[in-house]
Write a structure and sequence with these properties.
Strand content: 5-15%
Family: Belongs to the short-chain dehydrogenases/reductases (SDR) family.
Structural class: alpha/beta
Largest sheet: 7 strands, parallel
Oligomer: single chain
InterPro entries: NAD(P)-bd_dom_sf, Sc_DH/Rdtase_CS, SDR_fam
Strand order of the largest sheet: 3-2-1-4-5-6-7
Shape: globular
Distance between the termini: 52 Å
Keywords: Oxidoreductase
Protein name: SDR family NAD(P)-dependent oxidoreductase
Number of strands: 7
GO molecular function: oxidoreductase activity, acting on the CH-OH group of donors, NAD or NADP as acceptor
Length: 253
């Protein structure tokens, strides 16, 4: 019987690449996101290319009732979720805190922290009941250190870092693995969202060096979830070679 992985934010970037990588590994997929047409396109591709069975759940992780309803709607044959990848997340704005926009703060907190918690609260009991499972939380180098104007985004990712540690303690007796993955600069839709579709600003984020791509992180997720049952990668920080930490990137002229 194929294992089942649930990936949030599967419509683009790391989430989409992860769904593909796990389908290639032989998993069946539950893919979630806000853009239904992208989910349906991904479902069709995974079925044709990888012969994966795919269940689409169209919801916004910020909506607690929608999250709960979606997870409860999963057919019995799909409830044995082996891997949960909490990927949905974003950064919005890059302002000093005294000039920050409250709506940006709330969007980041509601998605990165509360959304991750809502999904985990719905899925984790299913894993605990079976005494097996692996939760992968997408954190960030911003969850390890704070950078100028990153204030609230960094705070949300520090929260993810702490939540991952807490999850590992709380579910230890159930044999649940928890892996916290902290990427540095990854070229996805991330900067387009942060700069609110200002392509010029987004492109400058990656000028002068080679950033990571979604497939790089997906390959790492694939690795950690296929390790032997007694092995858990707890915390993993990954950056492009040109990046030393959250604030130091070497850019060629």
């Amino acid at each position: 019987m194929k294992k089942i992985a649930l990936v949030t934010g599967a419509t683009s970037g790391i989430g989409r690449a992860t769904a593909i990588a796990l389908a290639d590994e032989g998993y069946n997929l539950i893919i979630t996101g806000r853009r239904k047409e992208r989910l349906e396109e991904l479902k069709a591709m995974l079925g044709i290319t990888y012969k994966a069975d795919v269940l689409v759940l169209n919801f916004d992780v910020r909506d607690r009732e929608a999250v709960q309803a979606a997870i409860e709607s999963i057919p019995a044959a799909w409830k044995n979720i082996d891997v949960l990848v909490n990927n949905a997340g974003l950064a919005v704005g890059l302002n000093p805190i005294q000039e920050g926009l409250i709506e940006d703060w709330e969007r980041m907190i509601d998605t990165n922290v509360k959304g991750l918690l809502y999904v985990s609260r719905a899925v984790a009991p299913l894993m605990c009941a079976r005494g097996t499972g692996h939760i992968v939380n997408l954190c960030s180098t911003a969850g390890k250190e704070v950078y100028p104007n990153g204030n609230v985004y960094c705070a949300t990712k520090h929260a993810v870092d702490a939540i991952s540690k807490a999850m590992r303690i709380d579910m230890l007796k159930y044999g649940i693995k928890v892996t916290n993955i902290c990427p540095g600069a990854v070229e996805t839709e991330f900067s387009m969202v942060r700069f609110k579709n200002d392509k010029e600003k987004a492109d400058k984020t990656y000028e002068g060096y080679t950033p990571l791509c979604g497939e790089d992180i997906a390959s790492i997720i694939r690795y950690v979830v296929t390790l032997p049952v007694h092995v858990c990668i707890n915390d993993l920080v990954v950056t492009p070679t040109a990046q030393a930490n959250a604030t130091n990137i070497f850019r060629k002229n």
